[in-house]
Amino acid sequence: MAVRGGQSMTPALEDVSSQLRPGVQALSFHALRWLGRAEALRQQLAKRPPPPEADALLCVALALFCSEGDAPYTGHTLVDQAVEAAKRSDATHRQASFINGCLRRFLREQEALMAFTEKSPQAVWNHPQWWIDRVRKDHPAQWQAILHANNSRAPLILRINEQKTTPAQYLSALAAMNIGAIRVGRQGVVLNEARPVTALPGFAEGHFSVQDAAAQLAAPLLLDGLQTTGGSQAPLRILDACAAPGGKTAHLLETADCAVTALDIDARRCERIAQNLSRLGLQANIVVGDAGRPDTWWDGLPYDGILLDAPCTASGIVRRHPDVRWLRRPTDIAQLAGIQAHLLATLWPLLKPGGRLVYCTCSVFRAEGEQQVQTFVAHHTDAVLLPSPGHLLPQSAGGATVIPDNLMREHDGFYYALLEKHSA
Questions:
Q1: pLDDT tens track for 340-367
Q2: FRET label pair with 343: which of 10, 96, 107, 298, CA 20 to 30 Å apart?
Q3: CATH architecture label of 9-126
Q4: What sections of 141-225 are H helices per DSSP?
Q5: If 0-12 CB within 10 Å is exposed, 13-18 middle and 19+ buried, where does residue 152 land?
């Protein structure tokens, strides 16, 4: 109901008691991954929607029914417990018989009802129609693979802090606890099964951070080949714009001798940066400020490198945030693209000649990636686009990689462009 009302699932889950939260999150993720199909089924079972609370409960139950070979409960158990849940709530107890009737009818007519919903792309792909159309337009050869990956479960991927240990040593530590894992990318480790990170070896000691494999490309892309101008031996001066919660800030500090300014507009999220860096034994200059208004926070000294992880639709991380697809609206793309263009144009003058800027978004939409950078380069003669990963399309296990690294096989959707500043 919160997501249908336009609220992100993250704060909605924070209102749930800590004991119930893992189970509630698991059920919510499952329901949102199958919401398109569930809503199509509900429309067949009840032409007029029931009250919002009952409709939400019914759609959760239908989503749990209709997943392909992945239904977590037997039909009898699911009907029984959905009806019991309806009876326990003041908002739904009058709808308990209605919910019982709908679910029992689904069990009787399951094959026919499921076949009927195959006519709806939103039911087949469990994304809004406009989203399906946009992905198909932007990636005509890969759109089905992208949507399929979005509906899979994201693995738990760690980035090993090589100031404390190595990927090989950490894999040995996991193996000693009978935790299966494999290498991914330079410093990444992907676990065979997700588990609480605080229970993993070396958490308190800062041996790792949780970070998707695609996001782990940001720091090395900026730092590889970047040198201070004039032969200076001083640490690289780096700006991490829109830095919260600090994963990329930490990676920069783990990778090179650099002085990092971690900037974010949200003071509470800046506290998260400080907490994460403290656990890892790292330090940065954390600043609360608007990246689009450097006059309020910049000290006037140009940077060797800038990492701009710009606000975006988050269309590349849907498997980790399945509510995103249902919260976004088509108009959000143009609005966010405008913010991205403003940030690029505003931060570019803060870069030294010879310096580099990495522009990235966790989006698969070309308006937030390739088209954004092409427009920027066309209007800035001092900006040169260096070899860059470009659009990384989300990959689930077993999918063909689109990254020139044969160890990278599991990642979210991202876009990366590496820009170097030359004389105009």
A1: 999 999 999 999 999 999 999 999 999 9
A2: 10
A3: Orthogonal Bundle (1.10)
A4: 143-150, 167-176, 218-223
A5: middle
Dist. CA 392–CA 407, nearest whole Å? 15
**pTM exceeding the 0.90 threshold for the entire prediction:** yes
Q: Can you spell out the DSSP letters for 97-113?
A: HHHHHHHHHHHHHHHHH
Dihedral sign, Cα of residue 30, residue 31, residue 33, residue 38 = positive
HSE (side-chain half, CA atoms, 13 Å) at 125 = 23
Active site residue 360: no
Amino acid at 323: D
| Range 157-210 classified under CATH 2.60.40.10 | no
May I ask the CATH class of domain 215-421?
alpha beta
Contacts of 262 (CB under 8 A, 6+ apart): 240, 243, 244, 246, 249, 270, 273, 284, 285, 286, 287
CA 107 from centre of chain = 35
Q: Do 262 and 219 contact (CB within 8 A), yes or no?
A: no
Active-site residue (options: 66, 102, 242, 362): 362
List residues bridging with 261 in a β-sheet.
239, 285
pLDDT above 80 for 183: yes
Domain definitions of the chain by residue range: 9-126, 157-210, 215-421
> Bridge-partner residues for 356, per DSSP?
305, 420
